[in-house]
């Protein structure tokens, strides 16, 4: 696993922490970036795209969800197709704290099966 982590940037590391957290939306990923790390929004976008292209994460929007018993909540929507990710990440609202406390529409990351398998091998 150390080999894997030695090949990620501090920004990619912060994004992987975001993917690990149950509801780690991208608006809060910046809080996981090491103090003193100089970055721009384009660096965050590049970091997400690098992780997607490695096959380690999926990008999702948070969507409303209804349980079989009728209770409502939220869940990850389907993975955003790769061609649509750059424009989604370019939206300033993706990186802002959402106004809706349910986070519906917020963008988040999740680990892929390939990442889980890589973790098991290390």
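Sequence proposed for the structure above (122 residues):
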């Amino acid at each position: 696993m150390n080999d894997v982590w030695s090949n990620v940037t501090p920004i990619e590391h912060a994004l992987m922490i975001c993917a690990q957290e149950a509801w780690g939306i991208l608006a809060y990923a910046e809080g996981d970036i090491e103090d003193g790390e100089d970055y721009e929004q384009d660096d965050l976008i590049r970091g997400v795209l690098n992780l997607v292209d490695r096959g380690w994460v999926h990008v999702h929007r948070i969507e409303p969800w209804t349980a079989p018993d009728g209770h409502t909540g939220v869940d990850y929507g389907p993975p955003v197709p790769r061609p649509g990710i750059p424009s989604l990440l370019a939206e300033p609202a993706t990186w802002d704290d959402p106004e809706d406390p349910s986070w519906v529409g917020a963008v988040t990351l999740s680990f892929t099966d390939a990442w889980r398998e890589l973790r098991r091998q290390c």
